[in-house]
Specification:
The chain has 111 residues and is mostly helical. It is 59% helix and 11% strand.
């Protein structure tokens, strides 16, 4: 679970415990990585997707309400800035060519 743990700022042990708890609640399923047999993919199940939607819906509504107060030109400008910042963050968080490749996107090595 190393890559997923790094992505959310937890230790591998804490991430493994969290994933184990989510799996016992049937909110996630673990799958073997198709190309790296050392890695495990973590996928949301149907109930997991519904729980995530329920958890994020109030936050998304609050964010939408803030943007509803902007005029269309300001919304467009904000969208351009956010897109630019997102691209910059993705570029900065990619591993360097010399760094070892992560196990898999949101997957971890042996648990």
């Amino acid at each position: 679970m190393s890559q997923l743990a790094a992505d959310v700022g937890l230790t591998r042990r804490s991430m493994t415990s969290a994933i184990d708890a989510l799996e016992s609640e049937r909110l996630v399923a673990l799958r073997p990585h198709p190309e790296d047999r050392r890695a495990t993919l973590v996928e949301l199940t149907g109930p997991g997707l519904r729980a995530a939607d329920e958890a994020f819906q109030p936050r998304m509504a609050a964010i939408a309400a803030v943007f509803d107060g902007l005029d269309p030109d300001d919304r467009d400008a904000c969208a351009r800035i956010v897109a630019h910042l997102t691209t910059g963050l993705r570029t900065r968080t990619r591993p360097s060519p010399r760094a070892p490749a992560p196990d898999a996107t949101h997957a971890g090595g042996p648990s």
